[in-house]
Structure formats: structure tokens, C-alpha cells
Amino acid sequence: MFPITAERPADAAQLEQLLDLTFGSGRTAKTVYRLREGVAPIKALSFAVRDGSRLLGSIRYWPISIGEAASPAIMLGPVAVHPDFQGQGIGRALIRHSLYAATRQGHRLCMLVGDKAYYEPFGFVNAAERGLEMPGWVELERFQIMELVPGALEGVGGMIGKPKLARGRKKAA
Questions:
Q1: Closest Cα to residue 160, out of 147, 144, 148?
Q2: How far apart are CA 164 and CA 136, in angstroms?
């Protein structure tokens, strides 16, 4: 297995190529990309797998908020693995590594839009059934949430949105 390391600024061009190769150039039309616009990924949760200088896999997380109370959460994605290396456990290793890091960093909730069968073993459950909504079209069976802290979803519901500060509101004193 290849080691998991922090994403580097020098990975940017290869990362875009990897994402296009993995998801296609139409990927940016999806609802999750609207939530990412104007918002920087969480640097401490951006990881890569390399073979020398070649980027084989990547995972990123983004800050989001949930509902009127703007409960903070994170959004997983994208996680991408070069097609020549898929099926070797790189994606699962990136997810396990990053969810562990997210928990250690104090994040409480993680949302994603992805394949139910792939993400369910990590602990993700249907988000719509838990009272969450997306601000655009998604396949509801792919809309998932995970409590990184037991009970973190209690009392949380509503529309997924950009993090409070990214929407231009002032930080509460």
C-alpha cells in the first residue's frame, strides 16, 4: 500500500486531471459543487496517495452548515483514485484515515453524496431520512450523513448550506 500524506499545493494540476479522469468533466455541474464554490477545502483534511510524483488518489473535505441554526458539519468529497489503481483499497484507506483525522480534530457530522453500498460500511446513513435537505437535485439514496460523535445529529435538521462565514454573515462574538 502507498502511504497517505497531506495534499500539497503542487498537486493542484494533477488533482484536476485525476478528478476529470475519475468523474468526467461534467462533474462540476453537480449540486455538491455549488456548495464548494467560493469555499476552500479543509487543508487539514486534504490527503493524497502518490507513487513518487504521480498522484494516485485524493480526498478532500469542505465546511458546510445544516439548517437555520447553521450547525457546522463537513462534506466529504471528492475521493478519487486513478482508474489503474482502483480496487486496491486506496479509496477506503483514504476514507478511514481522513474520518479518523476529522474525529480527532473535533468535527461532529460528515455529509456526502455517494454510492450507498460503498459508504454504508463506514457508518453513513441516509441523510434525507434524518431530516436533512440538499439545495439542489441529488439522488436521495446517495445523500448520506455520519455522526462522528454519537448523538451529534440530535436536534439537527434542515437544508445543507455553505458555512456561515462563507455566506457573508459576521461571526458571532
A1: 144
A2: 18
Residues in the chain: 173
Peptide bond into 78 cis (omega under 30): yes
Average pLDDT rounded to a whole number, residues 5-14: 93
- By DSSP bridging, strand 4-6 and strand 109-113 are unpaired
pLDDT digits (tens, 9 = 90+) for 80-110: 999 999 999 999 999 999 999 999 999 999 9
Selected residue with higher pLDDT from 4 and 164: 4
Structural domain contains residue 170:
no
| Residue in the structure block whose three cell numbers are 474525529 | 103
DSSP annotation of 29: G
- Other C-beta atoms closer than 10 Å to the C-beta of 27 total 14
Give the pTM: 0.91
Q: Tell me the C-alpha distance between 30 and 33, whole Å.
A: 6
> Coil, strand or helix: which one is 42?
coil
Here the cell at position 107 is 468535527
Q: Has residue 83 been placed in a domain?
A: yes
Domain containing 142 equals 4-165
How many folded domains does the chain comprise? 1
